[in-house]
Amino acid sequence: MTTQTRTTAAVPAPTPDEIASMDAWWRANNFLTIGQIYLQDNALLRRPLVPDDIKPRLLGHWGTSPGLSFVYTHMSRVIRHTGQETIYLTGPGHGGPALVAAGYLEGTYSEIYPKVTADAEGVRRLFRQFSSPGGIPSHVSVTTPGSIHEGGELGYVLVHAFGAVMDNPDLLALAVVGDGEAETGPLEGSWKGISFLNPRRDGAVLPILHLNGYKIAGPTVLGRKDPAEVRSLLGGHGYDVLEVEGDDVPGMHERFAQTLATAYDRIREIQQEARADGWTLGERPRWPLIVLRTPKGWTGPVEVDGIPVTGSWRSHQVPLSGVKENPEHLAVLETWLRSYRPEELFDESGRPTELVLQANPAGDLRMSASPHANGGRLTTELDLPDFRDYARDVPSPASVREESTRAIGELMRELYVRNPTTFRLFSPDETNSNRVGAVFDVSDRMTAERVLEQDEKLSHEGRVMEVLSEHSCHGWLEGYTLTGRHGLFATYEAFAMVSASMTVQHSKWLQEANKLEWRAKVPSLNILLTSTAWRNDHNGFSHQGPGLIQTVLNARGEVARIYLPPDANCLLSVADHCFRSKNYVNLVVIDKQPQPQWLTMDEAIAHCAAGAGIWDWAGTDDGDRDPDVVLACAGDVVTMEVVAAAQILRKRLPQLRVRVVNVVDLMTLPRARSHPHGMDDVRFGELFTDHVDVVFAFHGYHGAIHQLVHGRPDADRFHVRGFSEEGTTTTPFDMVVRNGVDRYSLVMDAINNAGRQVRGSSELKTWCEAKLARHHAYIVEHLEDMPEVRDWVMTTVVED
Amino acid sequence: MTTQTRTTAAVPAPTPDEIASMDAWWRANNFLTIGQIYLQDNALLRRPLVPDDIKPRLLGHWGTSPGLSFVYTHMSRVIRHTGQETIYLTGPGHGGPALVAAGYLEGTYSEIYPKVTADAEGVRRLFRQFSSPGGIPSHVSVTTPGSIHEGGELGYVLVHAFGAVMDNPDLLALAVVGDGEAETGPLEGSWKGISFLNPRRDGAVLPILHLNGYKIAGPTVLGRKDPAEVRSLLGGHGYDVLEVEGDDVPGMHERFAQTLATAYDRIREIQQEARADGWTLGERPRWPLIVLRTPKGWTGPVEVDGIPVTGSWRSHQVPLSGVKENPEHLAVLETWLRSYRPEELFDESGRPTELVLQANPAGDLRMSASPHANGGRLTTELDLPDFRDYARDVPSPASVREESTRAIGELMRELYVRNPTTFRLFSPDETNSNRVGAVFDVSDRMTAERVLEQDEKLSHEGRVMEVLSEHSCHGWLEGYTLTGRHGLFATYEAFAMVSASMTVQHSKWLQEANKLEWRAKVPSLNILLTSTAWRNDHNGFSHQGPGLIQTVLNARGEVARIYLPPDANCLLSVADHCFRSKNYVNLVVIDKQPQPQWLTMDEAIAHCAAGAGIWDWAGTDDGDRDPDVVLACAGDVVTMEVVAAAQILRKRLPQLRVRVVNVVDLMTLPRARSHPHGMDDVRFGELFTDHVDVVFAFHGYHGAIHQLVHGRPDADRFHVRGFSEEGTTTTPFDMVVRNGVDRYSLVMDAINNAGRQVRGSSELKTWCEAKLARHHAYIVEHLEDMPEVRDWVMTTVVED
């Protein structure tokens, strides 16, 4: 490690003028925050408050807000001195009014929403729109300029912050962690982000743990702990802990300004040292973190009706209720609002005074205007190779078997090479296990902790992100894409449910973002599930669950896509599409175990473009007439079973006309009016006819297909077999048998649901039953015989 | 705080004989673990190994196992000296073979599974069944005696442990936390359990953080941290950190025995002090915690093919591959197995020798035999009051409005009184917010942290569990019920998705437990969602999501129940049923806001018993003929809209025969063969006919109803309106309008889908459109007019 340390231009101690300006900005913000919660008129208090000035319904959260705006204006001062590109992430997202007010005071709000003008009428509109029908949400939301983080569902502020600064060396993410949020598992699991940060090429996260002591209805764990324990805890996570406590003004301004300057200088020191020539990371830097202790509802009414409010959970939401009806409360509100001296803060026209405006940084340096928080503005298109270069040679269907996911691993290897600062793979320690380890040819796993000689593919320079936390992987990728970069989260299918709520919340974010023209589209959130329910036969029931498909299915069609490529070439085609897309959640499900390959690359491209198609070669459907039955499939393992069933039928009941349909893009199934990918009626009819029974083998829960084909002609004719929560540690073939999607059961299903009886049917059913009986006997007797299981692991296509 | 400290009978230092016996037990366990992974024959190595002795498929995880069994036998020694009731929770659940071997060496396994005898043939069977078709899963699972924790999906070992010891003063839960698991959010969020433990009335958790340094493919964060940082971190969580490191034997035995004794004595000291007369908790005790550092794969082959295995991630699963084909590897395996000197461990017959057996505690004190880990054996029935005592007086439908959830709050208040050690409520700081705060009349919130004078309903004696972590609440309740006690988890509907994966995993556990006669049934896991998607109009889109219904829907019918009571009396009836039930996940969804009450208690009881029924008073269906259309509903808010729609139709289009059907028990909708609650065809026909169109207003996503009614006669006639991911901060009425389930849209739906045209229909549709236009205008103009929103918040039944 180099010992040469370039010193930074330190942030100076604040001048009295600076403090006056910051304090004015803070007062203005508090005033605007309270106004948003309470006022529908008389916005700048140009006359005494009357009940009619009060909104008919009081909504919003005061308690956390003054702390949020206090931190905001102090960070603005640092930015003004340093030109530091900074985004502000609000863990306690319910402090929405403070962040809306910040954007307003910085002028960004009026730039984006011209109706909210920088004058008295604009203030009135700002107030009325807050938490109102036709207005804006109560939380920091997609509509809030400068935000990449809603903070409604708590727990993700640090993962978003760390994701945002990866490969973003010039960015500082200031992340306020509320002490309520700090109780959640995902948040507690995310302090360790610094163990994955490289100060040379990554930016910095400055966490501000804001301890105001209370949640909605009681104290917080960290708020009640001995400060020494809190220091010990955060120090144990690897931080250099700085602390500020109090409610005295201007003392708090002086002390916090000093502490923030210290923290910022420390960050710059770490970075400058790391960015000096010849540097290699030795010990993980001790990044600074500030613990800020202020009373909840700071500057609000100390007591209401003789009961303490400030410094208690009672200030969490609307500290004064019944203001319209209760003259005393109305008077308290007026006194409270006037305590900020609005006459100093807004001029005649209602525009913030120079005193206030001086506190703002300029242009894109305003945190509410940061292009990093509108990542689409900074997105560079991913430099993608021609995915056809990774094509698998498939001379004929099922003539080769491959671990299909290796193909996307090879594709991503090239993505790492071509996009050295804008693409990352995130996975809970499963990159190799998921057979996408080709990326390790060109990048290591990242760690900022010690690297030992015996370690493989692990370094401080690595950019493959492995941490055994689905929350961290998911959240880092969210932060990475929301700031305009590209990536993929690969995980076990069952454990994707761990972060299912994050998938839901991100879908909601994208859905709302689509409605705002000023939000440029960001790269999609790509999720690859590649140790699937069906092939966790070795790990057992807890690892067997296709739940995330069902979760994504209920997101809105504009933002959610589900792909079930049956082989490597289809996976490549799908992956190319996903990597090029914007503002989607793309869910791709394909197993990592060796599996038959069906289509040539050209066939795969055509098949994936259509989203679903007839596999002529698999069925006995001559195309001239309707088939007797359709065997449909979506998902790799069930596709193999369907092809095998069709092959049995072809050989043993050739007079039965069987059509095989494979579905890659699940969202082609619903009607076009239900999803943008939905097939039109003609196309649907071409595949499924409008009356022939369909036996549908599905990767996930059967109900998903029922819900998707609802409204299609005679939807009752769809007989779906899927994962029915039957599993254990067993053979892969036993997994499909247990859930009734094995080839023999499908043959019997096809015969039972065919439109006509064909001679030989009952004999074939008997043959199938014998096959299943043999299987069950095998399972029962296995402990005695222990036969080679290979034949039972994954027979490709049974015969000829 | 009393200063009187009764000293415990300290656990003595281990004698050489004790160490010899523990070491033998440990060697036997390691031998059996490896045997389970590798051997199908020659189980006790009575002859040289040959390829045929090797299993055809090698599965299982070696790396963590020797550490698990090492801890196990040492805890057994403490138990033998102290008689301490103890359960062992295996965070790294993939160490299944070690725990199976422990149960076998303790004799429990043969008691439960008589085929697995205590002789050579039994050992052979033990080996063959492991990870084999027809055998047992590879993880610590439901089949493993002594387990309440599978540890497949990582993160929950500490929440299960803390839940198990609540109100269980005599129980010690030893919880091994793997350093892989320690990276997950839920685990990091669960160290704080001690902040909620009262040493007088609760038992103790002894966490063993087992740092072997590696996950599947790389190092762990805690494994690479400076030990001082790890101490600081855990000390910050409030623990007294003890450390043991090494791989030397017998040195490790001596040091770990000493450390475990110290930890145990410290626990007893804390408890005895707390249980002395006149005690009140002062500072939260510093509970002991042990950091155990041993090489991954300890005692396994140091190198294979010249590459390090022990002490690296390569020992995670099967460290020696290709043993059947590779004679060198076969020889390594034989040497490895013989290094445990099996001849000292098993006698002629194959039974463990006395040397090994001496290490076992006796009877129920064996951890594999603890009745606490088979909680149904200890379950006392909940003492329930007559729920009718809490009935709401409902003179006629919708004549009163109530916050329905207050009723279940009052019921639970009595549960707290009558069941002072066997019932708890768990909630993320939302007990009051969810209107179940009546419990605070009789119990406080629990904290072991400082209590201040200004605090309300907060004390060290409280038994209402509030922590802002869905993972902790869910997991604590799981641990509490799996050890035989009763409870309820109340949370916001949208944020129930945070712990959806836990709901899935617990369902799987119960499903498997149902198959094992020796597992006595445990109280159900009751989940109450009472700040619902529809009524988070004030909090906005991130708080609006009914996803958990969809997740629970896909669990197996034997273990999953979903109730949507429309009012307080129905909620009481449902709650009584849920609290009495065993081995279910009961999901109950009802909002907390004031809402119309529909049924008298007698009506509610009958309605809930049937699960679904016709509301004659709401419709115009005369019962003699089929109705023209059925208006169905499931869920409180949509029920109100359906009743209002029916009322509009009754008044304005009386000649249309409209039937109103309300569904409380969602699982009555599928066919009887799909779910035990499924209505038979006759009953279904009585409600829905077999051909009349049904407009179904549903609380959740519409697809759920489509999947449930699939297979019912002419299922296509069900037109479902549900939550379609449209939301923001707005009025409750706007929420239903946005999602198309408002009364006016339903009236138009009913007309459009009625079996016959009725004069006046088009006029009524025009009227409805005008109503909606008025609403939309209201929303658009709201920011100008700011009318009183009360009328729009929740009109009960619009007219008459």
Quick tags:
800 residues; Rossmann fold; 3 domains; 6-stranded parallel beta sheet; homodimer; elongated; alpha/beta; 5-stranded parallel beta sheet; disordered C terminus
Q: Looking at the structure, what is the overall shape of chain A? A: elongated
CATH superfamily placement of the largest domain in chain A? Thiamin diphosphate (ThDP)-binding fold, Pyr/PP domains
Which residues of chain A form runs of ≥5 with pLDDT under 50? 1-7, 790-794, 796-800
CATH class of the largest domain in chain A: Alpha Beta
* Percent helix range of chain A: 25-40%
Report the largest inter-chain contact: A-B, 141 and 141 residues
- CATH topology category name of the largest domain in chain A: Rossmann fold
Supply Rg of chain A. 30 Å
Number of helices of chain A: 26
Largest sheet of chain A: 6 strands, parallel
Walk across the major sheet of chain A and give the strand order. Answer: 12-9-13-14-16-15
| Average predicted confidence as pLDDT of chain A | 94
Looking at the overall shape, the CATH architecture of the largest domain in chain A is: 3-Layer(aba) Sandwich
Distance between the termini of chain A: 64 Å
Care to count the β-strands of chain A?
A: 22
InterPro entries (chains A, B): THDP-binding (IPR029061), Transketo_C/PFOR_II (IPR009014), Xul5P/Fru6P_PKetolase (IPR005593), Xul5P/Fru6P_PKetolase_C (IPR018969), Xul5P/Fru6P_PKetolase_CS (IPR019790), Xul5P/Fru6P_PKetolase_N (IPR018970), Xul5P/Fru6P_PKetolase_ThDP_BS (IPR019789)
GO biological process, one term (chains A, B): carbohydrate metabolic process
GO molecular function, one term (chains A, B): magnesium ion binding
Domain Xylulose 5-phosphate/Fructose 6-phosphate phosphoketolase N-terminal (chains A, B): 15-377
